[in-house]
Design brief:
With about 220 residues, the protein is an all-alpha fold. The protein has helices spanning about 10-15, 20-25, 30-35, 40-65, 70-100, 105, 115-130, 130-150, 160-170, 170-190, 195-215. The chain is about 75% helix and about 0% strand. Helix 4 (about 40-65) packs parallel to helix 7, helix 8 (about 130-150) packs antiparallel against helix 10 (about 170-190) and helix 8 packs parallel to helix 11. The relative contact order is 0.20. Bound molecules: 5-(aminomethyl)-2-methylpyrimidin-4-amine. Pathway: Cofactor biosynthesis; thiamine diphosphate biosynthesis.
């Protein structure tokens, strides 16, 4: 993982997004994922909604490729696109098969309010955000997932649970999150006060979206 200096821009954004950050990383949904106790019905609805999240997330990655200020950054971002469109997509399809998800729910399900809120945030950022703002939203989505997945004490039996954890707790994903943070720190160094404040508001809003997304499938 790329080294991040202590009290970096990304660290400051995360610290100022508490208590929501910890609420995502320690969400009871993730604990139930670890011990494999999420009922199929709940896992199905979560994955169906998340597949829609991933659609907009992929478009946001595309906007980051377009908005990046250098070729090396485009290459790193394209590497993540490769994962989302291969291993991760295959995981969704195999899980949908195992959970009996109908074609309509794979392609065009009724969206939860939490999915709509996250989608709106990603679309607004994609269409009108600076490269720093796009990185901010990408970083929240990936870093929260790394942080909860890293807490997994062991592998649950079902592949639907186990592989969802593994996709977010492996050395490549850790390196990707390290890159995102370092990139946000690099770009953040050139921002003025107003632009940094906009990134903070986006970071906080995206973190809240993550809490609401898990809440929608819990309790
Ligand atoms: C809601 C959500 N947030 C983040 C991730 C990780 N890409 C995800 N799959 N879903």
């Amino acid at each position: 993982m790329a080294a991040t200096p202590p009290d970096s821009f990304s660290d400051q954004l995360r610290e100022r997004s508490e208590p929501d950050w910890t609420a995502v990383v320690r969400h009871p949904f993730t604990d139930a994922l670890f011990d494999g106790s999420i009922p199929d019905e709940r896992m199905r609805s979560y994955l169906v909604q998340d597949y829609q999240f991933v659609d907009d997330f992929l478009a946001l990655l595309g906007a980051a490729v377009a908005g990046a200020d250098r070729y090396a950054s485009r290459l790193a971002l394209a590497g993540s696109i490769a994962v989302v469109t291969s291993e991760e997509n295959t995981y969704f399809q195999r899980s949908f098969d195992a959970l009996g998800v109908a074609e309509a729910d794979r392609v065009d399900p009724v969206l939860d309010p939490a999915t709509v809120a996250f989608r709106d945030l990603m679309r607004e950022t994609r269409d009108g955000g600076s490269y720093a703002e796009i990185l901010t939203v990408l970083t929240v989505a990936e870093w929260t997932y790394l942080d909860w997945a890293k807490r997994a004490p062991s592998k649950p039996g079902s592949f639907v649970h186990a592989e969802w954890i593994e996709l977010h707790a492996n050395p490549d994903f850790e390196e990707w999150v390290g890159w995102l943070r370092a990139e946000l720190d690099r770009v953040g160094a050139d921002l003025d006060e107003q632009e940094r404040a906009r990134c903070l508001r986006l970071f906080q809003r995206a973190t809240r979206c993550e809490v609401d997304f898990f809440d929608a499938h819990w309790g």
